[in-house]
Design goal:
Layout: H1 8-15, H2 30-46, E1 50-52, E2 62-65, E3 78-96, E4 107-120, E5 126-132, H3 133-146, H4 157-193
The structure holds zinc ion.
Zinc ion binds next to helix 3.
């Protein structure tokens, strides 16, 4: 099931909650299977680089990663249950975006450029992955969500304040635009269905008859 993605504007506190680990594979029930299914479905609709269970309101330790990000073949998002992360390498600043920070904004975050992840896949098998560069950044971003950490929490206080102000401003404009569009639609619809205010009848003038032109008579040249 495609679920609504929680955002920092309405669910800032909820997104900061720490998620609970999945039980061992033989204890997976409907809750665990539905969590994986909803994460995959929501990711397939949102078409991002990754998504974490708490972003769709499920506080269990599971994320999905776009297979292209980590160089895996196929279209199905890679499911990582109970992922554990070990970072290494130089720190580098890169831009990040997140469905939970709406408005299409991006922020600069400094992160280690290498990581190792161990996790359980959707079939219950233990897996291990090493990543570098932007793949390592994406994995860290998604796994951070499981500990209630958003990328803005890793920015400096001033940059974070400015970015969140920008998000609020964009969302104010967006909701104002949506409200205006809804009002215009309602008013147009009322007029079409005849329930709206009556329009003045417009009278059109009769078409002018084309003027009759006198046939041109060629004057013969005098010789
Ligand atoms: Zn995110």
């Amino acid at each position: 099931m495609n679920r609504k993605i929680l955002t920092i504007l309405s669910d800032a506190k909820t997104l900061r909650k720490k998620s609970e680990p999945f039980p061992s594979v033989d204890e997976w029930g409907d809750d665990e299977k539905n969590c994986i299914k909803d994460l995959q479905d929501t990711h397939n609709v949102s078409q991002g680089l990754g998504l974490a269970a708490p972003q769709i309101g499920i506080f269990k330790r599971a994320v999905v990663i776009n297979p292209r990000v980590i160089g895996v073949d196929g279209d199905d998002p890679v499911v990582m249950v109970n992922p554990t992360l070990e970072t290494s390498g130089d720190l580098k600043t890169d831009v990040e975006a997140c469905f939970s920070i709406p408005g299409g904004v991006m922020g600069k975050v400094e992160r280690p450029q290498k990581c190792k992840v161990t996790y359980i896949d959707q079939a219950g098998a233990s897996k291990f992955l090493e990543a570098e560069g932007y793949a390592a950044v994406c994995l860290q971003h998604e796994i951070d969500h499981l500990d209630g950490i958003l990328y803005v929490d890793r920015m400096g206080p001033l940059s974070r304040k400015m970015l969140l102000k920008k998000v609020q401003k964009i969302e104010r404009f967006r909701s104002k635009g949506e409200r205006l569009a809804a009002e215009m639609f309602a008013s147009d619809h009322a007029e079409i269905s005849g329930s709206g205010p009556s329009r003045k009848k417009t009278t059109y003038s009769k078409k002018r008859k084309p003027k009759k032109r006198k046939p041109k008579i060629r004057k013969s040249k005098k010789r």
